């Protein structure tokens, strides 16, 4: 991943970026994630698979399993909210990038960072409500989940999804996932996905491409 | 088939390379037309240069540790370097295709530890060359030496020790840590070291298994076998599953058991978790959590038995047909004249012998569970069919842990939940039987001249010769060595970090100074290694040829080729022992002239430099004779190697004791019945001559442990410490992997109200101590833990300060080296105290390097 930065290229990119009027990309088909907050055992195989795939040092984590717990002994509960990058319809990170390194793919809506243009200013990190962009101090760049675009292009699913021991994490067209008409083991027979849960930022902010099977204590609609 | 699937996915996602390029071309045209860019065209993949999986060489292999499973790892390598690892995606089996993942043939997906393997493989702690100690023992000063020098030293020393101290002087402490395959194996019974030392004629073995000896002994008494387990898919058929001290979200018991439990939940199964902690399993399976005081499980079970008997909820027909000693009606005639077997279980529960009925209220006073909850659970278990009471190992790692395991078996039997699909007789949980041994397993295997309870070695060394056979827990013999306590002068560690993992480490630190030879064979420099005289670098399972067999559940074999060349000067265990045998033969040709050839019959001495053909020959022979011959697997060795995995398909899930229940085949016990009254125990007259060393009741009974929250000692040490198996290590393995260390901390879990009283908040550094030692860890304050209970996960690598305080937080600084009569380690029988401290905690890795990891760690939100 380490590479020499081409200063001329970055300068040109900043110049171009300044002239540009930001217009959101509307993808032909938006891919997104589904995560079952209840059935997830929180094992973090997805996190480690992701770190191994992307060759990350200790520290930055593209995928993060958040442990939520509450109640008072002995009436307690716990669930997991598992998030990487939500490849939002209106990504908050994208317009903050001074070099235009962040871009959204037209075909599948994947939001990616061109690391040859990233100058490590970390504005995207501050803008993202989900903590997706991860600063890598060793390389002075910000990197994040690109939905394993190389695997998608090869006709396979991302590493995190294929790592899931409980089969509670999946990827698919977000429209179909939201309407629960996409065949996936992540959603059980009696379960309905929702767009928002507690401990996850308000989806109205960026229209993230992710749905959850919520825990009863994690619902925001009840 | 495979190609079709891939096409399906491409269509579904519309992300073919071509479509992708087309989009790029359109953007480029837009530029040409003079428009400003709306978005960056994809000129470069973000991380170029970045080899994609399909540009790399794919090699199917597996993980190899003692975690409770053995999942597939798929190495993607370039040249001799593993670039990344993936796992089973359905492609590598007979009739497989990408995405195939059925209930009968599920994918064998690796866990977080396996997925982090590159960090272990290429870690700075990797042992690459033979090393010999130059400083004091334990000081950690070594110099690099040649194999020649290291092996000659060991060979000469072995002969010297044997000649001077006799054939009990070398202690085999090999264990299943580093090498679990059919060819390269480290353990006490089938291990390479055991056969090597046995053939050499100097070996004391360690018979009690740290994880589950209570359960093993119990299952042998009760069922006559440790094969009391169902295959993992059988759990999907239960209507009620009681996870007693079992947290499959952390500790696997089969490759997909946790997933089958999820299927059970989706099919309406109810879950109960009996545990001092509200575990991730309790959360994921939406279980009714019953917090229980550690070490009191047998009492609660007795209370349940009382409720079942007094409400006549037992399956009397099952009891009458299949059990011995459950009640007066099932007592054998001989019992009334036996020395130890006059009592039956039901009358014990009803209080006929001691005047104390084991009522739910009686149990509640001991275990802290409200009597009404005990009654409710008893009724639920007795009236739901089929119901699985999965009595896990952890509550057996206690003083008198075997009584818990036997009490569980009694409950399983009285409710008739044995031998039926959806029921459970576990126990040990060993299910499908793999053909486990490809190397010569013959008359030389597992020869020993003394065999001790494994965590008594330090006690024996420190007190020799003033040690009794009862203290040592000697396994009886029929020759002149019966009852002879070994004079241990040397230790071999193969695939074992036992110095870090057995009980009461401070006692071990004292004992090891009395030894004359300590040899550590490992791929990593472990805390044990730091106390060794000689470090021998062992190739990992990525660097040698083998086949993985599943653990106690699962039915498959995974091919494990040599993925990369051995790193540094590493050799396999088998190479090292073979070469050592030849060297001993050189020094003493009269006594050991044939040692090398006998030890490794297919090899000659060139094996040390090239093991390819010999290992292939052992494995191919094993496949042909054992797997194809005995198990009737249709595919050839060559085909298996080409595919990578062979998954067995059964018509229905394997269930232990189905034949006994359905067809009336006798149980493999003395009576042919499920022995609630143990024939063996009932007829023992001289306990001193047994391996148990002291009296054990012949029926399951509640026995007060030597320390618990109910004992007077709790006034001085008010907390009960338990040390479960962690998720982010396999025992101590992977402790040095920063990827795993950043996901969890070595910490103490404490109940929020306890912490409040002591002014402790999450992240505060605390010291935990008792008479045995002291450790320093950060606190994790939660409502998910029972008051009075502390949890510190086992396996942290000790890191002692100048006063002997462990800054890393290994709970075995606090455990007691007093095994239970049946051999179970009393890892969870520990009282201690804690307080906030200024002492240093050293997490063992650079926390400053993790910019944001902790932001997303746990969120404790009491108000939710």
Sum this structure up briefly.
The complex is a heterodimer of chains A (222) and B (864). Chain A has 222 residues and is an alpha+beta fold.
Mean pLDDT of chain B: 92
CATH C-level class of the largest domain in chain B: Alpha Beta
Named CATH architecture of the largest domain in chain B: 3-Layer(aba) Sandwich
Largest interface (C-beta under 8 Å) = A-B, 92 and 96 residues
What fold name goes in the CATH topology slot of chain A? Alpha-Beta Plaits
- Name of the CATH architecture of chain A: 2-Layer Sandwich
Report on the biggest sheet of chain B.
6 strands, mixed
Name the overall outline of chain A.
globular
Report on the structure:
The complex is a heterodimer of chains A (222) and B (864). Chain A has a single domain (7-218), classed as 2-Layer Sandwich (Alpha-Beta Plaits). In chain A, the strands form four sheets. Chain A has a three-stranded mixed beta sheet. Chain A has helices at residues 7-19, 45-54, 93-96, 123-127, 149-153, 159-163, 174-178; strands at 31-36, 64-72, 75-83, 102-104, 111-113, 134-136, 141-143, 169-173, 210-213. Chain A is an alpha+beta fold. The mean pLDDT of chain A is 94. Chain A contains seven helices and nine strands, in the order H-E-H-E-E-H-E-E-H-E-E-H-H-E-H-E. By secondary structure, chain B is an alpha/beta fold. Chain B folds into four domains: 1-45, no CATH class; 131-207 and 437-548 and 556-647, Rossmann fold; 214-430 and 657-681, Dimethylsulfoxide Reductase, domain 2; 712-856, Barwin-like endoglucanases, CATH 2.40.40.20. The radius of gyration of chain B is 28 Å and the shape is globular. Chain B starts with a helix and ends with a strand. Residues 1-44 and 850-864 of chain B have low confidence and may be disordered. Chains A and B meet through helix 2, strand 2, strand 3, helix 5 and helix 6 of A and helix 1, helix 2, strand 3, helix 8 and helix 9 of B. Strand 2 of chain A pairs parallel with strand 27 (858-860) of chain B.
């Amino acid at each position: 991943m380490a590479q020499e930065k081409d200063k001329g290229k970055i300068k040109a990119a900043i110049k171009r970026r300044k002239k540009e009027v930001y217009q959101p990309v509307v993808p032909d088909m938006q891919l997104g994630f589904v995560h079952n907050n209840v059935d997830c055992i929180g094992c973090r195989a997805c996190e480690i698979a992701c770190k191994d795939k992307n060759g990350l040092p200790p520290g930055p984590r593209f995928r993060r399993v958040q442990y939520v717990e509450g109640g008072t002994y002995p009436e307690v509960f716990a669930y997991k909210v598992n998030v990487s990058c939500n490849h939002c319809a209106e990504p908050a990170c994208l317009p903050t990038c001074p070099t235009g390194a962040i871009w959204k793919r037209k075909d599948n809506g994947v939001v990616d960072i061109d690391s040859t243009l990233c100058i490590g200013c970390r504005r995207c990190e501050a803008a993202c409500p989900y903590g997706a962009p991860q600063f890598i101090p060793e390389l002075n760049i910000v990197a994040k989940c690109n939905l394993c675009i190389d695997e998608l292009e090869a006709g396979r699913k991302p590493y995190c999804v294929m790592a899931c021991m409980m089969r509670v994490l999946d990827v698919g067209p977000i429209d179909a996932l939201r309407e629960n008409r996409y065949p996936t083991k992540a959603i059980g027979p009696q379960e309905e996905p929702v767009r928002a849960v507690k401990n996850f930022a308000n989806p109205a902010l960026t229209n993230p491409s992710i749905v959850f099977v919520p825990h009863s204590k994690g619902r925001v609609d009840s | 088939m495979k190609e079709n699937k891939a096409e399906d996915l491409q269509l579904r996602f519309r992300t073919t390379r071509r479509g992708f390029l087309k989009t790029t071309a359109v953007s480029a045209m837009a530029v040409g037309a003079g428009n400003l860019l709306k978005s960056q065209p994809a000129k470069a993949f973000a991380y170029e240069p970045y080899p994609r999986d399909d540009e790399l060489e794919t090699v199917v292999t597996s993980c190899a540790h003692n975690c409770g499973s053995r999942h597939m790892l798929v190495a993607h390598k370039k040249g001799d370097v593993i670039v990344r690892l993936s796992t089973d995606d359905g492609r590598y089996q007979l009739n497989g295709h990408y995405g195939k993942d059925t209930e009968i043939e599920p994918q064998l997906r690796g866990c977080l530890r396996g997925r982090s393997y590159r960090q272990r493989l290429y870690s700075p702690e990797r042992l690459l060359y033979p090393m010999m100690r130059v400083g004091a023992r334990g000081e950690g000063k070594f110099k690099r030496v040649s194999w020649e020098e290291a092996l000659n030293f060991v060979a000469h020393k072995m002969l010297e020790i044997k000649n001077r101290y006799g054939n009990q002087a070398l202690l085999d402490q090999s264990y299943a840590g580093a090498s679990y395959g059919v060819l390269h194996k480290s353990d006490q019974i089938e291990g390479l070291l055991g056969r090597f030392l046995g053939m050499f004629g100097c070996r004391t073995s360690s018979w009690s298994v740290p994880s589950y000896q209570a359960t093993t002994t119990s299952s042998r008494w009760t069922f006559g076998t440790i094969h009391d387990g169902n295959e993992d898919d059988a759990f999907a058929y239960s209507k009620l599953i009681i996870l007693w001290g079992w947290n499959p979200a952390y500790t696997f018991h089969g490759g997909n058991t946790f997933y089958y439990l999820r299927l059970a939940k989706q099919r309406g199964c109810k879950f109960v978790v009996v545990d001092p902690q509200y575990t991730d399993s309790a959360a994921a399976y939406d279980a009714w959590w019953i917090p229980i005081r550690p070490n009191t499980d047998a009492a609660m079970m007795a209370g349940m038995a009382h409720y079942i008997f007094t409400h006549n909820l037992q399956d009397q027909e099952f009891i009458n047909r299949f059990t011995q000693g459950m009640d007066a009606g099932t007592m054998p005639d001989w019992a009334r004249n036996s020395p130890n077997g006059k009592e039956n279980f039901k009358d014990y529960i009803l209080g006929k012998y001691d005047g104390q009925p084991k009522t739910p209220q009686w149990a509640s006073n001991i275990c802290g569970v409200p009597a009404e909850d005990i009654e409710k659970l008893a009724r639920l278990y007795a009236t739901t069919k089929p119901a699985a009471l999965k009595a896990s190992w952890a509550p057996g790692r206690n003083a008198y842990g075997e009584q818990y395991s036997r009490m569980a078996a009694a409950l399983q039997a009285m409710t008739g939940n044995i031998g039926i699909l959806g029921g459970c007789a576990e126990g040990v949980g060993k299910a499908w039987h793999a053909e486990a041994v490809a190397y010569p397993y013959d008359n030389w295997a597992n020869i020993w001249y003394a065999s001790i309870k494994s965590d008594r070695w330090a006690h024996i060394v420190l007190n020799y010769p003033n040690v009794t056979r009862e203290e040592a827990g000697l396994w009886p013999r029929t020759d002149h060595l019966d009852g002879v306590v070994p004079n241990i002068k040397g230790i071999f560690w193969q695939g074992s970090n036992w110095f870090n993992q057995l009980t009461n480490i401070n006692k071990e630190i004292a004992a090891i100074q009395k030894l004359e030879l300590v040899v550590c064979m490992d791929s990593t420099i472990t805390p044990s290694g730091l106390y060794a005289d000689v470090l021998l670098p062992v190739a990992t399972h990525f660097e040698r040829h083998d086949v993985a067999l599943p653990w106690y559940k699962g039915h498959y074999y995974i091919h494990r080729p040599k993925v990369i060349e051995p790193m540094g000067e590493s050799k396999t265990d088998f190479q090292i022992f073979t070469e050592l045998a030849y060297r001993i033969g050189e020094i003493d040709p009269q006594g050991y002239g044939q040692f090398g050839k006998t030890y490794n019959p297919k090899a000659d001495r060139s094996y040390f430099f090239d093991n390819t053909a010999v290992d292939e020959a052992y494995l191919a022979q094993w496949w042909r004779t054992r797997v194809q011959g005995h198990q009737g697997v249709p595919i050839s060795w060559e085909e298996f190697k080409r595919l990578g995995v062979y998954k067995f398909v059964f018509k229905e899930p394997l269930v232990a004791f189905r034949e006994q229940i359905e067809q009336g085949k006798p149980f493999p016990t003395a009576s042919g019945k499920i022995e609630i009254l143990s024939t063996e125990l009932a007829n023992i007259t001289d306990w001193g001559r047994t391996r148990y060393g002291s009296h054990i009741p012949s029926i399951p009974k509640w026995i007060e442990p030597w320390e618990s929250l109910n004992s007077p000692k709790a006034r001085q040490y008010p907390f009960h410490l338990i040390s479960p198996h962690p998720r982010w290590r396999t025992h101590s393995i992977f402790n040095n992997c920063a990827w795993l260390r950043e996901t969890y901390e070595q910490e103490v879990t404490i109940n929020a109200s306890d912490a409040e009283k002591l002014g402790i908040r999450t992240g505060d550094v605390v010291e935990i101590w008792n008479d045995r030692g002291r450790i320093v860890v950060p606190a994790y304050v939660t409502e998910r833990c029972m008051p009075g209970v502390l949890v510190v996960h086992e396996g942290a690598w000790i890191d002692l300060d100048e006063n002997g305080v462990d800054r890393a937080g290994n709970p075995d600084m606090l455990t007691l080296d007093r095994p239970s009569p049946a051999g179970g380690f009393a890892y969870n029988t520990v009282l201690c105290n804690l307080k906030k401290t200024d002492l240093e905690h050293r997490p063992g890795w650079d926390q400053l390097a993790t910019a944001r990891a902790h932001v997303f760690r746990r969120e404790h939100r009491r108000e939710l």
